[in-house]
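Step 1: inspect the first sequence and its tokens.
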Amino acid sequence: MRKNKTRFLSIILAFPILLLLALPRPFLESRDRDGKTSRPFTGDSFEMVVQRGHIRDVTCVAFSPRGRFIASGSKDNSLKLWNLDGRLIRNFNGHHHWVNSLAFSPDEKYLVSGAYDKTVRLWSLTGGEVIMMRGHDSSVEGVDFSPDGKLIASASIDRTVRLWNIRGETKQILRGHTSNVSCVAFSPDGKLIASGSSDRTIRLWRPSGECIRVLPEGNSFVESLAWSPDGRILAAGYFESQIRFWDTEGRCLKIIDRAGGVVHGLAFSPDGRWIAAGGVDGQIRLYSREGDPIRTIKGHGRFVTSVSISPDGRSLVSGSHDDTVRLWDVSGEPLKVLEGNTSRVMDSKISPDGTLLASASSDGLVYLWSMDGRLLKMLSGHSKTVYSVQWNPDSRILASGSKDGTICLWNRYGHLQRAFRGHSKPVGDLSWSPDGRLLASASFDNTIGLWSREGKPVKILKGHREGVFSVSFGPDGKTLASGAVDQTVRLWNIETGEARILTGHRDTVTCVAINENGKILASGSSDRTVRLWTTEGVFLRELRGHFHEIGSVAWSPDGKKLASASMDKTLRLWSARGDLIRMFIGHTDYLESVSFSPDGRLLVSGSWDTTTRLWNIESGTHAALVPYRTGAYIIFTPDGYWGGSRNGGRLVNISRGLKVFGVDQFALINNRPDIILKRLGIGSREKIDYYRRLHLKRLRKGGFSGRVLATGFHVPESEILRKVNKGKQVTVTYRLRDSRYPLKRMYIYVNDVPLTGPQGRPVRGKSYTGAETLELTAGENKIEISCVNARGAESYRAVTFTSYSGKTEHDIYFLGLGISRYKDPSIVPLRYAHKDAQDLEKAFRPMEGRGFRKARTRIWTDEGVTRNSIMEARKILQNTRTDDIVVLFIAGHGMRSRTDGIYYFLTHDADEERLKETAAPFSLLEGLFSGIPARRRLMLMDTCEAGELDEDIASRYIRQEGLKGIRARLFRRDGSGRGLMIRKKSDISYLYEKDRFIYNDLLRRNGAVVFSASRGDEVSYEHERLRNGFFTRAFLEGLQGGKADRNRDGRLSMEELKEYVMMRVPEMCRSYKIQKDAFQHPVVDRDNLSQEISFPSP
């Protein structure tokens, strides 16, 4: 939420701090529980990079000269550097406005960029901003490097082209154009510079500054230029859907009309035989050098702004106003989409009870978090940017205000209670009265609205002459402060509607806050100052220090400290007297919001850098939360510790120089939610100890100790040297090496199935070369090899592909474990778990002869479900063949151990006090797949995986057992006999969603698809009318009724079945009148997209 008018400080004030913020921050040290120093990346210069794309229009893209990297620039003010796999290597932040253009230096060491902020900036690919060049009087629209890398050309709306040396000194100013200069390009030999302008002309210059030729006017504004590799042809794209080819003598060689609207991006192929053009219609068109159309590439949703072709001529990269960067094969096949899935954080607030965090986003969503960094829900109700979120004092209602003029009221579980249009223009801020009965809203329509707790209008306060940015209730509930674009602060008596006007700010008043005792008012402004006033209107003092506009101010709960957030990317903490206590640096873009936790120990901030950050005020340490619109999320610290959702580890990269690695390669040491929670002081001792125990267990399973990992970190390398196919087999020769540490284990995968088992195969020495003969499956086979060194770092997987098209026959194996009755009478019996296994067996058995050679089925129910029967199942699976499909089904009670955090499936004779000896740990169930020949593996789990529920969660399910026929699959009875076990003083089960990804080491498990009946904080239901569990019945419907066969091809793919079941189970909950916040939601705990699993449709 910013004014349209852009303000900048002088270079003398801004540059030193901007340069400091642009440089990569070194990884910090931390201390574990025993006080021992833990350094995630000792001895190596690693940087943690969250995988996030641009959040606004992509304006420019380019391949590096050697084709190793892709750079992109955007209206989000940033540049990004990517590798060809689509991994983000580095963000470049420093521009204050849209990035319009960029170019690589010929030696691939630098990027140059031009932006709407009138500057040209030179960036080192490995170290951030190097030089900022000022001189243009208006937006810089185009930049280019000379072929020798000694000069930079920049084109500007100020009608000039400037030539700079790489030290940032102006060498020439080229004048002659009579309107905006939109593009500039050096000829391949560096002897000419072409510039295009809105005056419809193209000018050719010598580097000396001499204009040697003005090409005839085109049909409209010149938008883009591209030289052919031999320098003989200059292609120009025009505003009125035209491309012209010119020679250097000024002759027009060819005109292409109807080129897709505004031609804003042009690029010649390396051989000069064809050209790519991006159009306003979202399409990329390829033309021959003679102007003949070759093909049209479709995929972007909006205007294509820029195109670039790889040096080998095989790939093309494009940027668009749809916020994406797309990588294509020149045949038109899409290869990668580099997109954001993240948005600016406009506001963040912790609930008064300290248990929840809400963040408002520019994507129109509100994100609801637990205080341990878990994304609970994405709240959808607004159509545009959400500017403000505010909790009611009792923490039961969350209010949100949006650019769309609406206000939404949500309950604490994220369910929309009421939405109403409060204003005719955007709602910029909200504030609850201390008693929670009134909600105040500030709007750009110049008014303040007062609303009841139910969202009914109470009063409209008028007086500001321009848009109101901020409101804040005083502790008496009768005084309301407001700040507006008219540069005034007003103190309102809400009963009379009268206001005292406070003047003194020299620009928009962006934020106001009254302290707890109601005596001091703080106001922040676009004039870069914070002012303190008495609530009687007396000016006290002015706080200076920020060098950009203030976005937010907040008082601590005791009223003794004031926090301010600024567009200079910093937070500052002040005493009530105005003395600076501390400055917090970490955000990489403008700050929009700051607030305190209820106990005053934490600050929470929201920024345009897409993060919400939690800061420990005493220590200064912080962690950042990043949500993705896909539902994935990540929490991380600057020194490399992280935690996240089931797919969270895929969202973080570790870069060193220009190399980038997946965070999972370092997961053994830096996947440490216990350290994050301890640093922030937000986790209970039980929770932190629980996480720590799981981390140590994971180390033991890998054969590592914390002491070994802390002594240094270095990434090994894996390489596939060659492959030789012979019928259904392939022999792969590989090399593993590490220049610093000995190797410890190696892994071989075929279609993501680990053939070397979850623990890998031991290797010795710093280098190892070997060969492996592997049996292929029908179709394409992806073969990967990786290794782990003695310090726990894993190499990138070396990858090769091969295929087998010969005839194959395959069987289907179904093994079912269903238990409804238990030996221990205290474990509540189920009605239909055993029947679930029986019904599924009946569904799979007829598949013999229908797509499968044989259908081999076996089930165990009730007293037959023991640890021994599970071992018997393993023997059966040893007889499978490579192309067979194995389905393992379990139904019954699940329980997570209080002591070691292990999930157990309760066998018939399970004893809660002796789970390790009597029940089946999840590792035993997964072990059924380990080492078996079959590679297509599916595991279905119709259990309540949480096992134990916290009191606040369990209360949701107690009510459902009163519904006729409904039973939740929970294993212990409470006093009411409703089958629920409630943990009243523990939050361990609350962690379960994290446990799934963090500690199960998913990338080195068994390659199975694991499809579970419910999420970690939910139960699984069964119903007497269905005579099945909801999950099993939905799966049976999809399998037997053909309802899941969307494309009607006679085959049911796992993708079709998953989609159907995940849709159908909530429908069942709704039809049986289950309360919405107690719904069951099936979830894919693990997926394997490389394995094709499908069944015949009836």
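Step 2: inspect the second sequence and its tokens, then contrast the two.
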Amino acid sequence: MPRRDDVKKVLIIGSGPIVIGQACEFDYSGTQACKALRKLGYSIVLVNSNPATIMTDPSMADRTYIEPLNVETLEQIIAAERPDALLPNLGGQTGLNLSSELARRGVLDRYGVRVIGVNLDAIKRGEDRETFKETMTRLGVDMPRSEIATSLEEAWAVLERIGLPVVIRPAYTMGGTGGGFAYNREEFEAIVTRGLSASLVHQVLVEESVLGWEELELEVVRDAKGKKITVCFIENVDAMGVHTGDSFCTAPMLTISREVQDRLQKYAYDIVDAIEVIGGTNVQFAHDPKTGRIVVIEINPRTSRSSALASKATGFPIALVSAMLASGVTLDEIPYWRDGTLDRYTPSGDYVVVKFARWAFEKFKGVQDRLGTQMRAVGEAMSIGKTYKEAFQKAIRSLEIGRYGLGFARDFHERSLDSLMELLVEPSSERQFVLYEALRKGADVQALFERTHIKPWFLQQMKELVELEEEVLAYAGRLPPDELLVRAKRDGFADRYLAQILHVSEESVRARRTALGVVEAWDAVPVSGVDGAAYYYSTYNGQDRVPVSSARKIMVLGGGPNRIGQGIEFDYCCVHAAFALRDLGYESIMVNCNPETVSTDYDTSDKLYFEPLTVEDVLAIYEKEKPEGVVVQFGGQTPLNLAAQLAAAGVKIIGTSPETIDEAEDRERFKALMERLGIPQPRSGMAHDLSEALTVASAIGYPLIVRPSYVLGGRAMEVVHDESMLREYMAKAVDVSPERPILIDEFLRSAIETEADAIADGTDAFVPAVMEHIELAGVHSGDSACVIPPVSIPRKHVETIEEYTRRIAVEMGVVGLMNIQYAIMDDTVYILEANPRASRTVPLVSKVCNIPMAQLATRAMLGARLGELGVRSRPVPHFGVKEAVFPFNMFPEVDPLLGPEMRSTGEVLGMADSYGLAYFKAQEAANAPLPLEGTVLITVAERDRAGLAEVARGFAANGFSILATEGTARFLAERGIEAGAILKMHQGRPNIGDAIKNGEIQLVVNTPAGRQSVSDDSYIRKAAIKYKVPYITTVAAALAAVRGIAAARQGRGGVKSLQDYHADLA
């Protein structure tokens, strides 16, 4: 069937900000869809609220709307653009839910918009728990015994029939949001209540527990003719009970019989036929190896996190093919490298893929490191090797958690076997590392299987690694015999890990194995659905089959797995670098190991190496390809941390030199430079131990801001108010970076923070924009809302910031990008820090100001002068407000306070012609819409009350009733502002908690009163999250909210595409 001609314009809904359970895999799938459909001649209208993605670049779609993802906004866009069709299954759960809601409310019928790719009844059959169950019963596909409940009372009745333990699964959610295992009645009540709240339709499934069964996934593609293929068979190494997003998994299935795989495929095909999906579907099964029973757990009638993994594992671009199939093209019309056309596709490849998740438990004080049915991971790495052992070890060193192998993590090797077995009772992010040490201590494979439900085959593979490591350890202090070194390399042991456990240098390990001819060989993963494409992986277990060209080449190092502090913004920069290199006539070589991203798409660069970002792996590629240089400044801290070692090994670093990078990171050198330039800095010092820290603190005075050097995302950064806090910090901070001192700075309380990005060519620098942070000093820049252009900074300070930025960039010899953070206090601009690399604000500035920063920086790094690039300052007539998005709903035990350590997972952008409306739209896009009427609760600590009267008057002027706690009410009354009194939790009933639960409060403004109050009043903020009441924890943000509400009450205005905003720029 040829492409359909009754459709000219297609609407694609993106997935919004990066959150746990819905990350940048949807940027990847949405970008692929845009490329596929535009190539077929369709006009694309894209809607997404996330500024950090490649997808929302104006070049990706014909019309791009960075707007809040809700029905009201989408109806306005549909009315303005009049698309013929909607493709709903490429924007994750968000896109699917919104498409269903647009249909339910009659919007699609009203404007004549057809749904392509998956019909709406299919969404219901896949997503609605009741309908899905009916469909499976009709097909004769077994499911765990289960019943639907729409209230806690109904759930109790179901429990009586099924019995504990049970699993609770909310409908229309992603990442297992709100769900979980319940082993007792108290847990059951808590999880059901949470699940009903999380579900779009207030519905949960109470399901028989299949804990400990094998968890198996199939990625299936179906076309309009009903032809079906299985793209990938995925085996979760962690058994049922751990969410697939957290589970360690392999492709292909390594321990599952052909007979079971055939049964799974038959069931999956029956299901997708019944659901009538066109495109990709993920089907999850549980298999009981004791009885042979197979049950279907759930399906996702859309591209998913697993489909991104399956795409990268097999070379089959599921989103690209799904978009083509939605247009009416069929599998027998799409090329396949092996057998002609895709209708003949079968999974193949003589390699093993391992996916391993990355978590951020250390960012959330009070959270238990425990894995269950609700996803907790913030990112993942994927590795490819010829054997399971090789791929597994590559996955571990791809995680960038300071571990290059499985052994000697934390203190596990010092613990007794009994203690280790105790740690294995419940799954955690450390489980594989604990297993490794348990095996070293002599644990029995069968006993470990019974404790963890991880199959003996995987445990036996690990045991063999432990045994080989023990042989190596016998030669501590010197290199092992050649034969042993060869075996270790073939089983995936990294040079750096061998050096660490043997107490020798990494260089000596590399030199010896190179002399033995033990070097990485390379093989290809051919890409299906297109002609002549492939990407590459290394192995110590094969022949080199990858040719190299004689073209001029540049290598770009990616950012590795997503994590808090280093996310999709850096991938955005890497992708733009690859595009720019191609335009300049270079062969671009990308190195990355993140399966979720656009940088690891087969056609982003000329050559993709799917490899860990370590010195060993990058050097091997460099020596093979012999590029003219390597770009390290776009992938965040990951490649920067490699720069010095790569340069020492003879690698040419393109752009800013490693020496300059070190000058910016070395506090003493940077301080001396600022003094030479006459640029003010907060008073500061460094300490290697507690006594030094106390000496520095007494010289500067409290409060202080303390942090380790060479980290990203404010890792372990804290505001310290007194000596006891400093002692506590020093006791735990030494773990973060033992070779580096602790940095101690004067904390500029109530300062306005700003930042500026620059593009520099070594002799000149251009500052596209100055951003003003909405939260005051003390909140990490990644967590603070910010606005372009600034709204309250005097012009003279903006000019000072621009001048300082230019001077610093030129003095340091920066070539490429630089980000500098400032604070303004007492009419003085202070510099806080300078980062000679891409920052997370690059996509934001690029989109608000229409300046392709990463592309221009790449050209500057290759020798272009700013004068040649045609850059110039232009006034920005509109406002862009970035707001951070947090995972506090996934961590209900955490107090959602903002501080100097970054905790947001993603961001949104609100754009409008006024600051107030842009701020309002940003809150709406962050899923924390500000109310336009009702009651606001104000309870603010004494030290935060500057500006509070203005906030309260603003709410009153907008028609809000005000409730306040005793101290705040008295403060407001003294200023003539009327506020009703409300009790704190410990003062009696009814209190704040009751009012929030009863829906009597529409907005919470609450700042903690200090150390005592952080525990004392956290219940207010936690209750606001639980009952979905918008909450604000700083007076500065409350002031912005007042302006936003006032603007929105005057009228929301229409929607406006990014292309139209850019056309307004002079």
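Step 3: confirm your contrast with the notes below.
Residues 389 and 461 are 7 Å apart (CA to CA). The chain has a mean pLDDT of 92.
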